[in-house]
Amino acid sequence: MSKNIEKFPKEKLPSSMSTSQLKMLGQQYENLHLNELFAAEPERFQKYSVHFDQLLFDYSKHRVNQTVLDQLVTLANAKHLKPWIERLFSQEKVNCTEQRAAMHWALRLPEGHTQFPELTKQVHLQLERMYVLVEKIHAGQYRGATGEVIQDVVNIGVGGSDLGPLMVTHALSDFKVQTEKPLNVHFVSTMDGSQLSEKLHKLRPETTLFIISSKSFGTIDTLSNAHTARQWLEKALGESSRVLKSHFVGVSTKADKMTEWGIAPENQLLLWDWVGGRYSLWSCIGLPIALLIGVDGFKQLLAGAHAVDEHFQQAPFERNIPVLMALLGIWNNNFLNMQTHAVLPYDGRLKYFAAYLQQLEMESNGKSVQRDGQKVELDTCPIVWGEVGPNAQHAFYQLLHQGSFSVTCDFIAPIHRYNADHFTYADSAEALVEQHHLALSNCLAQSRLLAFGNQALNAAELETLPIYKQYEGNQPSSTLLLQELNPYSLGMLIALYEHKVFVQSVIWNINPFDQWGVEKGKQIADQLLPILNRKQSDLSAFDASTRGLLKILLGKGE
Question: Using CA atoms, how far apart are residues 13 and 35, in angstroms rounded to an integer?
């Protein structure tokens, strides 16, 4: 299915003419204030914003003008961005270190897509199997070993098998579908068992279904939780194949491992090795999402992402939102020396969005070796962090406004809320609309103050303002507005960031689809576990610090 791909040509980014121009511009713009840029171009919003479908992207509060943007687009062209976008969408093995394609975009191809008919058929075959299971559970036709209807579903996964589904189900909680009996979806990820223990105390074995989500079906975090869940069920319901068949669903690339573990073939949902974990929520890893918002809702999520796939492939770079997001990040990170980026949603439903992006961006582009095996010559992914904006205002906004670090920000908010048919608190609608407006006013106020500093204040107030109450401003930010937060617009939002990551990987000449930095720590943990389990006692292979800590943990320390 996939074709091999040549590595990037061996070129050094800093030696390119476009990069040299950007370095000179960066020296000019590093201390240029946004107040000056807005004074020079009063119509910056009209010039530096893009509307597409249900999204508006405003990047006018960045230290750019047309000259800078032209040079950034020149850089993208010099790095062959357009051909690389075509390669991403052509089944080639763009994941060069693992010799795999990266075809998460194929998971959201509409049924009957003519460009890749066989691929689309395979994808929809698995999605249809998931949809059948979802409808069966919703209708109360899927029953546990004792014949009772399933009312609680626990997703056991970690990383991409947890963060994506968790983020989306929380974000789309307003779109929960009605089921024959109330259905709750839970998530467990931590290997220490604390999350699972808390859940098991509140659940009934007879009505609980576990989803074991693991691409490799070998992740120790997930399998240790799955083993504990299995013991809990067998203690309550007895050891039998019926218990395993009725209370476990598996999602993996490894059918043989799922069968060996005890999951019935009819409860196995498959994905492919060309689906990266952090890009997998669009696949059957998204089963918890479909269980919450229903089959139609899940299809809308896919449709929103596919719309952005089309936009990404077709729009000119100057009006291409993910390309602009990526190039602005390159400008801030590599030429203005701003190497930390805050994600600030002004909607509590996006509580887990920053955590999701931390994996998507930092696991993808947290690399220091180019595709050609050479060390990178420029810094790659900035540190990504964030929180729901209204809460963050009372936590770390002090640092944003008056700290000594330059931080770039993404503000994200829905324009409308509490006026849709799915709204369930009609009696409180008016008050809640006012609360939504309160959140929006704070979103705009914070981005304004971060950008313009003292100039955003009342002139009379500023005359008597002591220095410790003043604001320097000049902190760049983007604002992403959604018409409303729904499955379609959330699909769009996620896909924007996916493609932003890819564009930046092309500019930095790195592979965004592997994560070798994660692997070695697991292997070292395997060396330590037998010692903590008192099956081995020789500590000589470890450094002095680790030996000392092991002795304390084993009760042998001073």
Answer: 31
SS (H, E, C) 98-148: CCECCCHHHHHCCCCCCCCHHHHHHHHHHHHHHHHHHHHHHCCCCECCCCC
Parallel, antiparallel or unpaired: strands 477-484 and 55-58: antiparallel
Judge whether residue 61 has pLDDT over 50. Answer: yes
pLDDT at 457 over 90: no
Nearest to 211 by CA among 256, 151, 293, 156: 156
Of all residues in the chain, the percent with pLDDT exceeding 90 is 87
Span 484-542, pLDDT tens digits: 999 999 999 999 999 999 999 999 999 999 999 988 888 899 999 999 999 999 999 99
- Give the pLDDT of residue 351: 98
Q: How far is CA 522 from CA 221, 277, 528, in A?
A: 10, 17, 10
Q: Which residues contact 557 (CB under 8 A, 6 or more apart)?
A: 548, 551
Asked whether this chain's domains 17-78+315-423+479-508 and 112-291 adopt the same fold, the reply is yes
Strands 55-58 and 49-52, bridge-based pairing: antiparallel
Token pair belonging to 271: 């994905």
Report pLDDT digits (tens) over 349-402.
999 999 999 999 999 999 999 999 999 988 999 999 999 999 999 999 999 999
pLDDT per position as a tens digit, 422-444: 555 556 677 888 899 999 999 99
Instruction: Just list the catalytic residues.
Output: 363, 394, 522
More confident residue, 523 or 279: 279
As a whole number of angstroms, the distance between CA 335 and CA 396 comes to 25
Q: How many CB atoms lie within 10 A of CB 465?
A: 14
pTM over 0.90: yes
Torsion of CA 370, 376, 377, 379, to 10 degrees: 120
Query: Do 294 and 138 form a contact (C-beta atoms < 8 A)?
Result: yes
Residues 6+ apart with CB under 8 A from 369: 375, 376, 510
Asked if residues 8 and 367 have their Cβ atoms less than 8 Å apart, the reply is no
What pLDDT is recorded for position 428? 66
Q: For the chain, what are the domain ranges?
A: 17-78+315-423+479-508, 112-291, 518-553
Continuous segment of H or E residues that includes residue 69: helix 66-78
For residue 90, what are its two tokens?
Answer: 């052509």
**Residue 494 DSSP symbol:** H
Tell me yes or no: is domain 17-78+315-423+479-508 CATH 3.40.50.10090: no
Check the CA dihedral 449-25-343-77 and report its sign: positive
Torsion-angle region of residue 11: left (phi > 0), alpha (psi -120 to 50) or beta?
A: beta
According to the model, what pLDDT value does residue 419 have? Answer: 61
What sign results for the dihedral spanned by CA atoms 239, 245, 251, 252? Answer: positive
Domain 112-291: give its CATH code: 3.40.50.10490
